[in-house]
Design brief:
Shape: elongated
Order of helices and strands: EHEEHEHEHHHHHH
Structural class: alpha+beta
Radius of gyration: 18 Å
Largest sheet: 5 strands, mixed
Number of strands: 5
Number of helices: 9
Mean pLDDT: 88
Distance between the termini: 28 Å
């Protein structure tokens, strides 16, 4: 199950819900939390979701403050993280990675970090070891005493599950900042 969180800054909630129902079909459910509308769905195409939200915001005349998930490990926890992140972001359409990167004032860094590394085979020691070896796979695998293919597997799995590619400086820096300042 995936979800979209929309900040309620639109005039006609009923029309918005009907529009989503027409686009996604009957595989939707809705939930209201404070100033947010949460739309649960099974749609898989991320680019289409962003385009749909943009199109609806133009058609229904609202500024999108939206968060979408596409690989949710814990629906309730990520929904909570999404709402907290959207409270500190400018208008836009975000996933977890882009929301963390765009947010200057992340209040729940420990919760985000714990959510990202949960069941990923990656912990603070792994991240620091990889950083201390200059994000170099060969050097890190040798100095961390793990097989090179195991290291690559963990990095690939983490990227597929979270969207953060720890081999890229920007992604690693963001994760490191969240980890160090939690």
């Amino acid at each position: 199950m995936n979800f979209i969180v929309l900040k309620k800054n639109f005039k006609d909630e009923k029309l918005l819900k009907e529009s989503f129902m027409q686009i996604f079909g009957k595989q939707l459910s809705f939930d209201d939390k404070d100033n947010y509308l949460i739309i649960y769905h099974d749609f898989k195409d991320v680019d289409d979701i962003k385009n749909i939200i943009n199109a609806l915001s133009i058609d229904l005349s609202f500024t999108p403050f939206a968060y979408y998930s596409f690989k949710t490990k814990n629906l309730e926890k990520e929904t909570s993280i999404a709402i907290n992140l959207l409270d500190n972001l400018d208008s836009g359409i975000y996933d977890l990675k882009s929301a963390v990167i765009s947010s200057d004032n992340v209040l729940n860094k420990k919760e985000i970090f714990d959510y990202l590394i949960y069941n990923e085979g990656i912990n603070e020691e792994f991240i620091k070891g990889f950083i201390n070896n200059d994000l170099n796979i060969s050097k890190a695998s040798k100095n961390m005493y793990i097989h090179r293919n195991t290291l690559i597997y963990k990095l690939d799995k983490f990227y597929n599950d979270t969207g953060f590619d720890l081999r890229k400086f920007k992604d690693m820096y963001v994760l490191y900042e969240v980890m160090e300042n939690k």
